[in-house]
């Protein structure tokens, strides 16, 4: 499903990276102030912003990332940086799916860097939809420091399965990197160059939705709780394992909403033991 991260760059990718469209950058800093976490720093450029933070759980800062254009085309580039100071805690999600539209050649890019220093972050964006004919590069880097706690996921919908359309043609480079104090815990890379990359029996198996959930601080009890949420579903394949204290959930499915529902159930099952909070889904998911 995923492949080791490579430092090689294809010559055509370097050419595609030349900026030709919208560039947007959002930098957010969270800090503990008294009894709750606040959005202490915010810097934005271009069409990328956030809604006002709110506190349905008291101390925990809930925040929604917004990209008003609603999608990316070839040449667009989005950058998101989060910094969480010690003692802070936040839940970040999005009001809807991110869309990567058909490109005539240039690449659309989304880069996310999450720095968590002795703090807690739940990173729960809705899915990325990669339209047929897109050329997309998506990377997420999670930097854990000290006793940082993290539960997060990434959901990729390759094509438009509800319309019977695959990511063919289409190109995608998907990267996920997790590290603690500079030591790599997980480096993933999935490259899709043509239709053959969508069908391998040891890869995507022809399923258009692929997802990964990561949680830190896991032990065997958390692994058991995560596995207890699973119910038989021939259209959604789930694998759950633990490497040291890292819980890793892999999913393949035929529909993004069903995959997201399965990951949500796992998140709800492990949130209390890992973060000391009962499950409380973001309000925006119900709209």
Automatic annotation (TrEMBL):
It is found in: Cytoplasm. Coiled coil: none annotated. Keywords: Chaperone, Cytoplasm, Nickel insertion. One of its GO terms (cellular component) is cytoplasm. It holds the Pfam family UreD. InterPro entries: UreD (IPR002669). It comes from the Bacteria. GO terms for molecular function: nickel cation binding. Required for maturation of urease via the functional incorporation of the urease nickel metallocenter. Belongs to the UreD family. UreD, UreF and UreG form a complex that acts as a GTP-hydrolysis-dependent molecular chaperone, activating the urease apoprotein by helping to assemble the nickel containing metallocenter of UreC. The UreE protein probably delivers the nickel. This is Urease accessory protein UreD. The gene is ureD.
